[in-house]
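debug: dumping io for the single-chain case to check the tokenizer round-trip. Nothing else runs in this session.
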Amino acid sequence: MNRLIVKVRLEERGVNPAVVDWAQNLRVTLDQKKIARGHVTSESAGQSFALAYVMAILLFMAILLYGVNVMSSVWKKKTTRIVEVLVSSLKPFQLMLGKVAGAGACRFSSS
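debug: decoded output
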């Protein structure tokens, strides 16, 4: 609709209809090129996106593995601290009785 209105307005101003048709049918195609370090590369936008996606996943995995290591370290330290508190606050007989009762409970619960 817009092209038709432009054509009518130009014709009203005295522009040759053949020139109007020629100008409206002219197509301009633009090729996109990626330039890196002053040179045209063949890398496309899809390749750039895929590379960024893979790098984000690798970064996420590195952070996740680091977090697991930190969590494991904290868990071991906490466990050691709990054992230290139990050993320091219980009598040896109570500690041995708890171990025997716990081992016995595990033995009967798994059968």
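debug: round-trip ok. The mean pLDDT is 82.
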